[in-house]
Amino acid sequence: MVALVNEVNQADWAFNPYFEQFSRYFLAAKQDAVIVGFLMFVVWDIGPHDRDHPPIQMDGKTLREAKILAFGVKEGYRRQGIGTALQEYTIKQAKMFGCYQVRSVSGENHPENHSLKLSMGFAVEPMERDEQCLAFVMPLKSSREK
C-alpha cells in the first residue's frame, strides 16, 4: 500500500505524523492480490483541528467528523467503481462511529476526485489554502436525529 500511496502523491497526507494523535483508518482495495486503491481518514471534533475554530456543539455535545485526508486509485483501475466503494465504506464506518459528517478537501488539480464526490451527493464549497481547493461535505445526521 505504501508504494501506491507514493505513486499517487499522497504520502505527505497519509503518513503525516500530526495525524497520529487521532484515530486513523486506512482502507485498501485489492484486485488479483494487488492493492489498487486506498483511502485514509481520521475521526476528530469538527472545528478545531484544521480551522482553528472552537468545537462545534449541538445540545451540549461536540460533533465529530470523518475527515478524508488521503485517497487514490492506481492508474488503469480508475472508473471501475473502486474509488466509489472506498468512499461508500468510509461513509458507512463514519455512521458506525457516530460522526455527524464526512469531509474532504481536494486541490484544484484533482478533477476526477471532484467528479466522484459530486456524483455521490457531497456538497461542495470553494476555499483557499496554499492553493485553490474545494471542500466536500456529506452530512450523515440531521439535527433531529439522536
Descriptive overview:
With 146 residues, the protein is α+β, with helices and mostly antiparallel strands. It is 27% helix and 38% strand. It contains 5 helices and 8 strands, in the order ααββαβββαβαββ. Strand 1 and strand 2 form a beta hairpin.
Summarize the structure.
The protein is of the alpha+beta class. Helices cover 27% and strands 38% of the residues.
For the secondary structure, the number of strands is 8
Could you estimate the helical fraction of the residues in percent?
Answer: 25-40%
**What is the H/E order?**
HHEEHEEEHEHEE
Give the uncertain stretches in residue-range form.
none
Task: Give the overall silhouette.
Answer: globular
Report the β-strand fraction as a percent range.
35-45%
Topology:
Layout: H1 2-7, H2 11-14, E1 23-31, E2 34-45, H3 48-51, E3 57-58, E4 61-62, E5 64-73, H4 82-96, E6 101-107, H5 111-120, E7 123-128, E8 132-139
Parallel strand pairs: 5-6
Antiparallel strand pairs: 1-2, 2-5, 3-4, 6-8, 7-8
Keywords:
single chain; 146 residues; alpha+beta; 6-stranded mixed β-sheet; two-stranded antiparallel sheet
